[in-house]
Protein 1
Amino acid sequence: MKETTTLGRDWAAHRLDDGWEYTQAFETEGEFGPTGACVEFRDLTPGATVLINGTELGASSGLPFVRFEASGAIHAGRNEIAIRIAREAAPAEICREARVVTYDKVSISGIDIDPEVVDNIANIWITVFVGNHTNEEQLALASIVLAQGENTEKVEISEMVQPSGGEIDAVVRIMDPSMWQPDEAGEQPLFDCLIGLQIEGEIMDVAEVQFQVSP
């Protein structure tokens, strides 16, 4: 990771004919470069479209952590990011967190978690989408930790990532049903999923998401 610009939570809201647009300006300085640039969100409103300086980057899939490739859309100095959503009522919060980052080699471009309960065992299928910002194959190591209170499970998987990017798949099995079954109040317990991406022992990127297991 080279440089990070964290965006504030105060977005300017603008009413559109078919919905809402939220904008915010940010500055890029110093070593921040356009190569390998991404914009990241936590809890971005599903279906929201993201633009930087008028260039559309993509739309939110509804995952708790999403990242859009922004190389070529960002330039030195002042930039503007816009989030558009087609709905009559404005959401209470467009996103929980947003930042702009540039990466040297590889990055976590997305995380998909698909829990499945079979024979009273929770199988947590995890896919880590990896962006490659070089023109070469990269051997990446993904360290995946699931945590709930003092209980933790960790797996590490190495995969060769092509220049166009790739995926690293893992499965973690939770044998104790009390960890994922609803509590006395009927609330579904939350798990933390911590992911670190390394190349040759050097941490390239980290991400954290939460999920629940539905029986």
Protein 2
Amino acid sequence: MSLDATLVPIAMIAAVARNGVIGVDNKLPWYLPEDLKFFKRMTQAKPLVMGRKTFASIGKPLPNRLNIVVTRDTRFAYTGVRVCHDLESALRLADQQATIEASEEIMVMGGGEIYAQALPHASRIYLTEVDIEVEG
């Protein structure tokens, strides 16, 4: 299966500062309660695909969603998440789950390397533009 062959559309969700920064030291450099509510509403009951560092910044699986972590670390394991070692296998797993659960889309939620790999295959981007500049 190629990345363009998913049955369910691939979407990306992110918040970005004016200068393009999406995170600092594996954390969001801002606290925006409304954006967190938007994130929850948009990702609820949809498979989530994220990199290991993004997962580490969250610290636990997000509830009511299949959490898929992409990592090259073959020893990585965490209760409540599925682990894949490349984006293609993560999207394949997400596509299967989304098809079973009739989810409208697969959500890719970062970080930077995962976004870069997924961007050519995304049919939608949910982007919050944060009106600040941060070092990152």
Protein 3
Amino acid sequence: MDIKINRRFNEKELPDMKTIKADAKKIASDITIGETLFMKKYGVRSEAEYKRNMMDAGKIMKHSVIGWNSWSVTEDGIRKVYDSLVEAGSSIDRLGICCDWIMGVPEEYRNRFQASGSLIFHSQEEWNAIGQVVPVNPHLGDHMIGSLNSVENVTNGLTAGVTTIGNLAQYFTYEYPGLDMEGYRTEDYVKAMAIMGEFKERGVCMHCNLDDGYGAQFHDVANLLGWAKLERYIAEDLMGGRVAHCYGNLFSDSMLRVVFNRAISMIDKYHTPGTFVNGNTIDYGSSLPRNYAALTSYAIADVACQLTYPSGYAVAPVPYTEAIRIPAPEEIVEAQLSMDMVIEKAPYYARYMDWDKINADAELLVTGANVFFERVMNALDDLGVDTSHAGEIAAVLKAIGPEQLEVAFGAGGREKEAMRGRVPIRPTSIVQTIQKIENDALAKQKFENEGPLQGVNVVVGSTDVHEFGKEVIRNVLRKAGATVFDLGTSVSISEIADTLVETGSNIVCMSTYNGMAYSFGRDLKAALADAGLTDTHVLMGGRLNEAMDGSDVPIDVTDKLIKMGINADNNIDTIVGTVGSYSGISLQ
């Protein structure tokens, strides 16, 4: 079996499952789940109980992400959103509290790093306040389970009364540069799952956003669904918990959103209510009118699906300014009110949708998912992985990576000329979008000969988990003839410097999204200077912003990057010419 396993530690050195579960049971015995205002108002003991009640009543639930860089500002924002919606005759069921990446780092190491501008809890009192501001269910996703601080965050979150905590997917993609603690992280990850499993009868669920993990990197939706089965196997069958999946960020095909909801419900043997269907962020950009249209296009499909086949997923209208800046409370309210009109009109669409075709397409995805799941499990067994040990499975899957998994075990038929050598049963929206952007960008190029960047080495990567921009850059440069060294997502600065030396390249292109453009650019330039790589050309694109000088909201840092000597044109249409100019190649 030609599989490269990029191990960062020896998974056989993990404690056995009996020891991990015993530790988890002991920790869980000291946890008392708090009672939130939401629980008191609706007379429930968990969000899952509330969701089942709403499913029975035929009510569509709504979600939004919220969070700024201090608890006081976040608390004020929560009140503004809730009060404004009540005043408008509307409501919201759940709020995802957006925490800073530093929350995924054990407290004793946090002084080594700079936060990125999101919320940090500094005391248990602040944790406890999450559910005591307004009677809306609090949700914790980013940098909780799957981080370097899984057990601590689960303990604090449950104590605060949060009964839906994630994000299982982030173990595979979110990194914490400067802390090489992969063995510790893996043990902490599965132990946190076991703690959550101790409260499953109470309705406690583990959130997992497929689009935040390896799921975002599959090209075939059938394999993405198969990956969801692997996540369920680890968290439910082995660790005894319940998984509440989430998706939507990277689904721009409105009907595919519906098909996938049906498919993922078909593989959920415990019928656990999903967390939320996130809005389609692929189609959001700087044009607010286009963003308005994008919201209604995906929202109608999401609502129609929940009306016809209730599965507990809240619908999530992404604020129209999401691609530009962290939305203000007023912008969150605006999107929620837009969703209210969609909920009102969606029944007219739902009754004319071809549900037989939708379910048939979903069943085809399930068939492919089962093929992928079985192939991967058999391969793990052949590789000597203990398939009854959650930590071993998670660690080795992470070390193999989604591209190898899809190439070797994908459900689609083999085809030499296809991306990753297989024809997808159903291509993901991200693949369709990447191909369109690439084709549009290449069509605008002025070079006449094939491969004008022949002989040019370029290093590319993403500063965070979002790989969309990086994929486009990589593929355009490769089609222009460059030799591209793709470092993947959540790339460390030391990895960039090492790769530049190893490949003899003096060009690096970095995509960024999560509000860290300035600090990453600054630290990268400093590291390159220390390594004697001052002739390196750095290009950065994506969301070029960061919270600066105590600001609660990230600001555009394009000018600051340019002053550092970083190319911040942020233009895929000109990148071939720019890279060529750095190598003395003229495309005129």
